[in-house]
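Extended Data, panel c. Modelled sequence:
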Amino acid sequence: MKKGLIVHKRQIVLGVMILALGAAVWLNMKYSATDGTINATDEQSSVLGDAQYVSGSNIQESSKIQDSGDYFKNARKERTESRNEATELLQDTIDDAKSDGKKVESAASQLAVISKRIDDEAAIESLIKAKGFKDAVAVISDDSVSVIVKSEGLLSSETIQIQDIVISQTGVGLDKIKILTVE
């Protein structure tokens, strides 16, 4: 055998690597501008890492939360829909004849937790409105309570009132309470 005609695996790998490098250089030149910067479709943001909004709306407008009336209505609707779906799944588990005792017991306890959360959220919202706020939505999760209040800003006394209401209804600690405002 002649040594000059034999192609080794290393040579094949080296050839493939050179072709891949050439393709990468070609793609880089094709999609880069002549000055070496990458073409951007949005010329407003030239700083790497800046947020870019796809919809093209003004940044200030898109950072604002929706109209507060719609926001509270939609938040309640979404919360109710998700709870209804979870309740249906748990009820199906309870009603299924094939479910063993542990699954039925677990589903029943989860239903009780959901029911308790619904009652607590309604009580929190009612008590916050009774304190003079126009609207509020409370969302209780496994590890925290979030309260969204319709207000232009909260005084420290108002924040303390809301925290007191949440603690009295749920028993969670201060570090687990999140209060947000919507204008």
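The longest strand covers residues 145-150. This feature is highlighted in the accompanying rendering.
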